[in-house]
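User: Structure please.
Assistant: Input sequence and predicted structure:
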Amino acid sequence: MKKLVFILIVIKSLSVFGQQKVTLNECYNLLEINYPLVKQHQLLEMQNRLDNKIISNAKLPHFNFDAQATYLSDVVEVPIPNSNITSLNNDQYRATFSVHQLIYNGGLTDASLLVKNGQLKTKQKELDTHIYQLKKQINQLYFSILLTQESFKLLEAKKNQLQSKLQEVKSGIKYGVLLPSSDSVLEAELLKIKQQFMEVQMRKASLIETLSSLIGYSLTDFTEFEVPLIKTELQNEINRPELALFQLKKEEIKNYETLISKQNAVKISGFATGGYGNPGLNMLDNSFQTFYTLGVQLHWTVFDWNTNRKQQETVAIGKDIIENEREIFKLNTHIELDKQQKEIEKISMFINSDAQIIELRKKVLQTIDAQLKNGVVTASAYITEFTNLFEAENTLLQHTIEIQLAKANYNTIKGER
């Protein structure tokens, strides 16, 4: 019910006509709902219910029907002269219907159910783990789209500035201040910007198509991708689903240990058999008879050549292996976190220097702009410095997106959004 409510909220938030917006967290949530692997949760539950019914059937009575016809080459004869006891027929017939009811098996059935239920939880958590690992791919796609989205805005600003400058240059040419070919340089640069627009648009469309396939929700070029304000807490605590998976695996082994300990327990069952045959239970009566037997059976494995103990030792080794895998995972995760933290620190320093570079480029461009108006320099010199400023601004934009991506990856590695 909670999942249904959540789905409705997500759909409502994404379906505003003409102004579709999406956030990074919504992409995470849609991945967890729509990714094809999620469907295996239900399949595993269906399989588990069937397995539980099969195991629980051990507590129900079992019915069997048997029939046989045999021919014996020799039969028992009573060596008493002048007796009225006839020998058995060489052809004999028997049909029986029997019922077996388990009375006690030392909790073996319940232990088997516990193992199956533990296996279900482990398999479902494995699915969650696989889906969670896709979040880094979501991060890469989402922030790559953001980069194209912001690059589009930067190109738009560059185009408007050049168009304004083109009008000034044409005015300068008209009044003889500038050379007649000066406007051609600016027009060529505007055509180049048009090509860049097309390149950015095509890249954005490709990224959106890939992201849509991954989250199972249709996004378009008109979708607005909100820029997240990601905060990171640099600490060593990890909250990844893999840790819960390791714990479930250890619990599964514990359940299996319980199952092994029950295998050699005393088992008691009752049975009843009714039949019709020739001969019956009275072997001296050579005729068709009805008969029945009632009884209780006890089974106990007194000695199994230490098979049970060796199985428990094997399972104990498996528990140590899982603990070792858990420690390796934590070590590798901490290494990834340290690497990502250094990446965040490096990009932060780049952003600081980017801002200084942009300020210097703006001063140079202002100087070139004044010289162009006075005809001291050519339009080509202006375009060179204008491009340098644009590249500096584009570098700052890239670093701004990259640091958000690095923070998102840090949180994903740590197990937080």
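Residues 60 and 101 are 7 Å apart (CA to CA).
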